[in-house]
Amino acid sequence: MRPDSIDLFKEFGTALKIKVVSRTFKFKQPAGTSRGVYLLRKVWYIVLTSSDRNLPLLGLGECAPLHDLSCDALPDYEERLKAICRDIGKSGRMNYKSLLRYPSMLFGLESAVLSARASLAKHDYRQLFDTPFTRGEAGIPINGLVWMGSYEEMCRRMEEKLEAGFRCIKIKIGAIDFESEINLLRKLRNRFGKTDVELRVDANGAFPVQEALHKLEVLAQFDIHSIEQPIRAGQWNEMAGLCRMSPLPIALDEELIGINDPDEKQRLLDTIRPQFIILKPTLHGGMAGAEEWMEEARQRGIGYWITSALETNVGLNAIAQWASSKINDLHTAMPQGLGTGQLFTDNFKDTDLQIEGDCLWAAHTRERKFKSQLHTFVTAWNSREEMMEVQTSGSTGTPKKLTVKKSSMKTSAEMTCDFLHLKEGDTALLCMPLDFIAGKMMVVRSLVRKLKLQAIAPSSHPFKKLHYAPDFVAMTPMQVYETLKVPRERFLLKKVRHLIIGGGAVNKDLELLLQDFPNEVWSTYGMTETLSHIALRRLNGKDRSEAYAPFKGIAVSLSHEGCLVINAPMLCPHPLTTNDIAEIRPDGSFRILGRKDNIICSGGIKIQTEEVERKLETLPCPYMITAVPDPKFGEAVTLLYKATPDVNQSEIEKLCVCLLSKYERPRHYIKTAGLPVTETGKPARMEARELAIGLLKERALSCLCEDEPYC
Q1: In this model, does residue 708 exceed pLDDT 50?
Q2: Model pLDDT, residue 414
Q3: DSSP secondary structure letters along 310-340
Q4: Residues that are catalytic
Q5: Region 534-540: what's the mean pLDDT?
């Protein structure tokens, strides 16, 4: 039962700002119905924010009346909508009773409020409900819609839907001659029986009353699931007679428009007794009004399904999520009418609705896979098992699996949260792969400290669809660098209270770009064996440092080879000798100079790969330093660089002469299409060496062929 009103000020604890924004969208192709052809679609978005600029509240809803169909499609629609929103903004109260005459406005306001709730609870204004659909675990079966057009156009559109994998086809009829429409249905049924393809037709009230029964009898021979609104709405007695005598089940659609009083709904259903009703929140009283129709239909054994009313992706997202919350209420798993998101050339792009086969999904395949990984990991973490399996990144060799204690992971998480003063309710963003320890530990930190975690599949632009900055995020240098290129993303990144950067070295150029950040930015030091980082160094502000400060309880020392030794009994049972050449300062902090296995021994001179790369940071192209076997020097310093149109080798050689000592200068310069990296974006050193050796052999063979005409 719908509430009389909602006190929004009390619910959100703040005064609200409500803005109405109109937009006009263009159909990809003319959308033909029995009432005419749509070329453009005008909608009004309701944007709900807080007067408190620090509160991350954002609500978005869509009001999309159909000008020749909706009961509230009035000439002064925009003025009335703005007046209603002004009243709600002043009083903080949304009154359902006063909105009954305006179902499209009610739906827009309902979904904007749900969206605002989601922005606070989940830090994602797009996830209005928590269902398997919204979590990316299940799709919603939908029908394939064939718009009206010429016979040839409708045949083509039907073929496209069948080829796309739809197993329920809905064909709009009533705009061309009836015989041509029958031929179209015959063509489909000659190829597919009713067990292969479910067939629905929508007359949009096109049949004259005196012809309707005859046409229904003709249509019945094609095993049609149902026909929507065979005659014009408002003829209750005539429609009741058809529902009694029709050989086809009849579904009411337009008949429900404007019937907003509960008693009137009961009277309509008791009079007509249809087999189905079709629910469109924009037309039929918003979500609350549609739920009243559902309850009345259930009590009378009337079936129903949900469809859109040509909304853009804002409204469609809300309807689909609402429908997914009602799936158990639907009488069967019948396909819903939610495939209209691909109708427009310029649809709202901030939602991830996708059609695959005959299902609507709430996210791209990549996002769904990532959320499934997250669910699997959380399930494993909450199990009674004391151990978990993790995998190294493979930056210095073949990735390997390790078995670690959950209690040690919990301790690591607490160390980071305590150091950064993260508290329950803070928001965190997961945007790193869950295959490796960095992503896993972001989840563990959120579970241990009860942070609000938002998960986004790893990409170079994790802030692309965010509207509020999280309190805490871990990113790779590449992700930070790419995010800084986009002004809107850079603005949000600068508002993150705690940004930690790991998975690779932070070069000087990137470090300089971070100096104007007002909040904390840290570089991390750690590895899989230490269950993520054991030390941080500040990259910006007055506490900026070149050295890493270990967490409390962690001690470091140097091996006889000058490599860092980590003693962290709470994380790993034995001291861990790393391959990192380091220097330790009197205060216990340390600086990493490079890796022992990245030392090139050329002519008896030891050259640290990372040190050479640091000196070459001004090169105008991506590059890596590696080494190849050399008969005279043992190993020869080699520069791999990525080919770009505006870079030539002579320019690179000149820069190397200026920037490097004579021992560090490359003996080989090799152009390549791409530089090898690991799955986590780190330089793949072994692959780089093998690539350089292989390319040098190809170069030598090419030279031989030039000298030998028969090669």
Answers
A1: no
A2: 97
A3: S--HHHHHHHHHHHHTTGGGSSS-PPBB--G
A4: 172, 280
A5: 96
CB atoms within 10 A of CB 508: 10
- Return d(Cα 216, Cα 241) in angstroms, integer: 13
How many other CB atoms are found less than 10 A from the CB of residue 250?
A: 25
What is the spatial distance between Cα 63 and Cα 109, in angstroms, rounded to a whole number?
8
**Higher pLDDT, residue 325 or 594:** 325
Read off the pLDDT of residues 292-341 as tens digits, 9 standing for 90 and up. 999 999 999 999 999 999 999 999 999 999 999 987 665 446 899 998 88
- Please name which of 339, 329, 331 lies closest in space to residue 275, comparing C-alpha atoms: 331
Average pLDDT of the chain? 90
pLDDT band at 710 (very low <50, low <70, confident <90, very high): very low
Q: Name 630's Cβ contacts closer than 8 Å, sequence gap at least 6.
A: 602, 636, 667
**Token pair 């799709």 in the structure block, residue:** 139
* Amino acid sitting at position 624: M
| Residue 373 DSSP SS3 | helix
Please state, in angstroms and rounded to a whole number, the distance separating the CA atoms of residues 358 and 356. Answer: 6
Query: So what's the pLDDT on residue 646?
Result: 78
Which among 252, 246, 351, 261 is positioned nearest to 307, based on CA atoms? Answer: 252
Q: Could you read off the pLDDT of 486-497 as tens digits, one per residue?
A: 999 999 999 999
Q: Which residues are within 8 A (CB) of 270 and not within 5 positions of it... i.e. 6 or more apart?
A: 300
Q: How far apart are CA 692 and CA 686, in angstroms?
A: 10
Alpha-carbon dihedral sign for residues 92, 98, 101, 107: positive
**Are the C-beta atoms of 207 and 238 separated by less than 8 Å?**
no
Whether the CB-CB separation of 514 and 477 falls below 8 Å is answered with no
What pLDDT, on the 0 to 100 scale, is given for residue 703?
A: 61
Assess contact for 395 and 684: CB atoms under 8 A.
yes
Q: For tokens 């090419």, what's the residue?
A: 702
Q: Are 378 and 442 in contact (CB under 8 A)?
A: no
Question: What six digits make up the tokens of 4?
Answer: 């009389």
- Give the strand pairing for 590-595 and 576-584: antiparallel
Cα 517 versus chain centre, distance: 27
pLDDT tens digits, 383-415: 999 999 888 765 545 567 888 999 999 999 999
N- to C-terminal Cα distance for the chain? 85
CB 602 within 8 Å of CB 630? yes
Residue pair 127/136 in contact (Cβ under 8 Å)? The answer is no
Q: Is the Cβ–Cβ distance between 113 and 8 less than 8 Å?
A: yes
Q: Exposed, middle or buried, 393 (CB in 10 Å: 0-12/13-18/19+)? A: buried
486 touches 461 (CB < 8 A): yes
